[in-house]
Amino acid sequence: MDTPHDKRVDGVKRILQHVSSVLENYLEETTVSMLIEEKNDVEKKDYQAVLSSIRRLSVHVEDSIDLCDRLSRSAYLSEAAKNKAFKKLYVHCVEAFYNPKNDAWKENSRASYSNKMGIEFNRPVGGSLIELMKTISPDFDKLREELEIYEHQF
Fold first, then answer.
1. How far, in whole angstroms, is CA 97 from its chain's centroid?
2. What does the pLDDT read at residue 1?
3. Fewest Cβ atoms closer than 10 Å to its Cβ: which of 77, 103, 115, 135?
4. Secondary structure, 3-state, the chain
5. In 10 A of CB 150, how many CB atoms?
6. Domain segments of the chain as ranges
7. Which residues have a Cβ under 8 Å from the Cβ of 112 and sit 6 or more positions away?
8. So which domain of life are we looking at (predicted)?
9. Residue 122: its pLDDT value, please?
10. What is the C-alpha separation between 98 and 109, in angstroms, rounded?
């Protein structure tokens, strides 16, 4: 029998798998040199910071997929333990996306009112980074909606 937690784990895992695939493909195919060619008036260190944040986010997403797998196999976890796991998913993925450690980008809180992308880079960047964010932002919006009830728990 599927519980609400089981359904939530399955939905979150599907979203994370899509994000992981997109991030992995981007990171495998993109170099700082390529980004500089796209938009050469951005300093190398700025592109390095952005790619560092993307790699870090990718690791958080992979770890969260593993956590979803463990939750799926653990039929006897208490509700409190499941809630704590969802809190961890929220912090490691959603917060890591909207608030990257090195501030390479930030959330545009007014984006939904102006039909703009929800993420703004702190420096102008090339088109492939903008397209990447356009691709994964809706997934993180869904994750946020799905997991926001756990944001302030524990």
1. 4
2. 46
3. 115
4. CCCHHHHHHHHHHHHHHHHHHHHHHHHHHCCHHHHHHHCCCCCHHHHHHHHHHHHHHHHHHHHHHHHHHHHHHCCCCCHHHHHHHHHHHHHHHHHHHHCCCCCCEEECCCHHHHCCCCEEECCCCCHHHHHHHHHHHHHHHHHHHHHHHHCCCC
5. 20
6. 4-148
7. 118
8. Bacteria
9. 86
10. 10
